[in-house]
Amino acid sequence: MKTKIIFLIVTLICSASAISAQKGTAANPAEAVLIEKERNAWKNLSTGNAEEFGKNLAEDYEGVNGDTRHNKAQEIAAVKNTSFDKVVLSDIRVKWLSEDVAIVLSTFTITVVGANNKKESYSGKSYTIYAKRDKVWLCVFHTDEPIESVGNSNQQTAVLKP
């Protein structure tokens, strides 16, 4: 009888551990928050919504695009003059540097209406560092690098339209 009870307890513990491990494979809540913040930042950028975009930036934010560095005010001013036809984010993931600092990495394709109303698409890799300050995740640094001009994108992941 003792053997059956011990076997039952061990089985219950193993089952509980397996269920717990399965739940742990999903992105943790902080990762989900950071991924959503990144998606919203790109959406606000694509629509030129500078006010909402700026709420995501820390006061000491710095962005680097090509050979240009921007502080928070410069980045917000640039967003006011930005509008994309479409933004597609894919391969979004979070790399933890510490409990309160993480890099959100993604691949993006932006589609713009260029000369002669011709749509042009550009792809790149995005690197955004978030830091948790006063219990709020804020973007402290962003950079991206182009991959190549890809014509019209066929990607369907996280399409953000205004």
How many helices in DSSP terms?
Answer: 4
Give the amount of beta strand, in percent: 35-45%
What would the average pLDDT be, to the nearest integer? 80
Number of strands: 7
Which shape, going by the Cα principal axes? globular
Strand order of the largest sheet: 2-1-6-5-4-3-7
Largest sheet: 7 strands, mixed
The radius of gyration is 21 Å
> Which stretches are poorly predicted, pLDDT < 50 over at least 5 residues?
3-26, 150-162
- Class per helix and strand makeup: alpha+beta
| Secondary structure: helix percent | 25-40%
What distance lies between the first and last C-alpha atoms, to the nearest angstrom? Answer: 66 Å
Could you state the order of secondary-structure elements as H and E?
HHHEEHEEEEE
What do these coordinates show?
With 162 residues, the chain is an alpha+beta fold. It is built from four helices and seven strands; from the N terminus they run αααββαβββββ. The protein has helices at residues 2-24, 29-47, 50-54, 72-80; strands spanning 57-65, 68-71, 86-98, 101-113, 119-133, 136-149, 159-160. A seven-stranded mixed beta sheet has the order 2-1-6-5-4-3-7.
Structure described in brief:
This protein is of the alpha+beta class and 162 residues long. It has helices at residues 2-24, 29-47, 50-54, 72-80; strands at residues 57-65, 68-71, 86-98, 101-113, 119-133, 136-149, 159-160. The protein has a seven-stranded mixed beta sheet with strand order 2-1-6-5-4-3-7.
